[in-house]
Amino acid sequence: QVQLVESGGGLVQPGGSLRLSCVVSGIISVINSMGWYRQAPGKERELVAVIWSRGTTKYADSVKGRFTISLDNAKYILYLQMNSLAPEDTAVYYCNADIITGGIRHNYWGQGTQVTVSS
What phi and psi values does residue 58 have, to the nearest 5 degrees? Predict the structure, then answer.
């Protein structure tokens, strides 16, 4: 059983920073990619950033230059460093993993962590 557990969310003032973490546990053969998504009230879930196993990254235009995704392959921890936060970044942030376990490809989601940007 693979589990993803996010942490690091909270309330921050505009212009502030937060670092989200996502710990992956369980039996894992290969991590193909991991990513962060977010969902604001009344909106659809959207991709924030994704990182592939070889280190290639992709960001949503709205967060480019402000957010940085990284993956500790040894510890199976995904990070999202968020700088210059703005009220429009307020959302529940979800960790996602595309993993091969037992020769089968699976997609997993974490439970989400709330990020609120407000003065």
Answer: -145, 140
- Cα–Cα distance, 15 to 105 (Å, whole number): 39
* C-beta of residue 82 within 8 angstroms of C-beta of residue 89: yes
Rg (CA), the chain: 14
Residue 111 · residue 3 · CB < 8 Å: no
Strand order in the sheet with 18-25: 3-7, 18-25, 77-82, 67-72
> HEC profile for 56-83?
CEEECCCCCCCEEEEEECCCCEEEEEEC
User: Model confidence over 53-107: pLDDT tens digits?
Assistant: 889 999 999 999 999 999 998 889 999 999 999 999 999 999 999 998 888 899 9
The answer to whether 53 touches 30, Cβ cutoff 8 Å, is: yes
From CA 8, how far away is CA 70, in angstroms rounded? 15
3-state secondary structure of 5: strand
